Amino acid sequence: MITSILLLLAGVILAWFGGSLFVDGAVGMARWARWPVAVIGVTVAAFGTSSPELMVAIQAARDGVPQISLGDVLGSNVVNIALVLALVLSLSGMKAEDPGVWRDWVCALAVPFILAAVLWDGWFSRLDALVLVGLFAAWLTMVVRHARKYRARNKEEVVEAGQASKLKIVLQVVAGLALLMVAAQFVVLGGKGIAQAIGWSPFMVGAVVVAVATGTPELATTVIARLRGQHDVGLGNILGSNVFNALFVASVAGLIHPYAVNLRELMPSLIFGIVTTLMILPGRGGFMGRWRGFVLLGLYAVYVTWELRAA
């Protein structure tokens, strides 16, 4: 138990340093490529910080317990908004400046409905997984098109990055991602160790403990992005992570090991996934006030209580 707690603490510390490096590198990459910062947040940052969920999905499927992965995916999507983003919002508001954020918000809202439709028959088949991968590819295509249009409109923009700056950007991104991935491993191992000591079910381990553990990189990246004044990196990271988790990560486990699902177990995560996403609909001018953060934290407390009582 003590070893697991130490692993969690080490993971949190590494995630903070990794998140700091990664945000700086991601913003530099956006400026060099003349892409909207939000696009970097919703793609590179989101995929990088979702690497723990992907690793859990692969390992859980190989071990014959893909339910842990599904619980992790659904739980992580709630954690990303109702805990990670909520903490940032409660400290200070946030403003969505890039118009692409609205598109990604709609996609994130659609995710729980898509999963419910796909899993309604109580079975996660390889065909279901391929459908989700196809939807993920369609979303990613829209994001890339948005980035290209932005670049075309800003062709005359002067890029202030020399060769040395480009190398620095690459090193920051790679080093940041590496630290985040190592941090994720520590956090996942620590979280699973604590959960096993408590004696919870596989799905509960994924939905509550592992979901919080794998959300550490998102927390570090979002907080640091907010401190740097890069609102769209943090918000894009959260929205992109949720789409990536549900449409791609969940599909990986399903492709490796099709399995039966218990709809009653899924319902709390699906319902709270919808409610929490609705809570971050950007207001007039794209601003989201602090009060939303406090409401989301309250919703997260209700979610955890509901999950624990249903266990």
Share in β-strands: under 5%
| DSSP strand tally | 4
| Spans where pLDDT lies below 50 across 5 or more residues | 156-164
Q: Which strand order do you get reading across the main beta sheet?
A: 1-4
Shape category: globular
Domains, number: 1
Distance between the termini: 22 Å
CATH architecture: Up-down Bundle
| Helicity level | over 70%
Largest sheet: 2 strands, antiparallel
Radius of gyration: 18 Å
Instruction: Fill in the CATH topology.
Output: A middle domain of Talin 1
CATH superfamily: NCX, central ion-binding region
Structure, described:
With 311 residues, this protein is an all-alpha fold. It has a single domain, classed as A middle domain of Talin 1. Helices cover 82% and strands 3% of the residues. The chain has twelve helices and four strands. The protein has helices at residues 2-33, 37-49, 51-62, 66-91, 100-118, 126-153, 163-198, 202-214, 216-227, 231-256, 263-279, 290-310; strands at 94-95, 123-124, 259-260, 287-288. A two-stranded antiparallel sheet has the order 1-4. A two-stranded antiparallel sheet has the order 2-3. The protein is globular. The relative contact order is 0.25. Mean pLDDT is 80; it is low at 156-164.
